[in-house]
Write a structure and sequence with these properties.
The protein has six helices and two strands. It is mainly alpha-helical and 130 residues long. A two-stranded antiparallel ribbon has the order 1-2. β1 and β2 (73-76) form a beta hairpin.
């Protein structure tokens, strides 16, 4: 019997829940920390706009590429996102330490989507590995 692969939406709600930026696997990654730093201002704007019920069109956070979601939500491109690996697949940073403990099971994105695996940053998205 084949297991149905799950997909995780790459949207503002999931981006806001994602805990990858605090994961020990990328905790010492200069590449990931550069992306976290670049995203920090954008994330604060997203939080404020979501709390106020506003759309996010036209928002920029200094990232190299933004993608449009649902006609109004602006998110960083997958290559600029230091997380959401369960949605986007393996990390683009080559300096992650996969021997460190993974926190996927403590993440709301993981539980909300009933995921079964961990280390999506290394193995690929939920659609790829389950």
């Amino acid at each position: 019997m084949q297991t149905e692969m799950k997909t995780v939406a790459y949207n503002a709600d999931n981006v806001m829940k994602c805990q990858c930026t605090s994961c020990p696997v990328q905790g010492e990654s200069a590449c990931a920390m550069d992306k976290v730093h670049a995203m920090s201002g954008m994330m604060e704007k997203m939080r404020a706009m979501m709390a106020g019920g506003q759309g996010m069109s036209g928002m920029s956070g200094g990232m190299s590429g933004m993608s449009e979601q649902h006609g109004e939500m602006m998110l960083p491109s997958a290559q600029d996102m230091p997380g959401m690996y369960c949605s986007t697949g393996t990390a683009t940073c080559g300096d992650l330490d996969y021997t460190k403990g993974c926190i996927c099971p403590t993440c709301a994105v993981y539980t909300d989507n009933q995921l079964d695996n961990t280390k999506y940053c290394n193995k690929g998205s939920a659609a790829q590995v389950g």
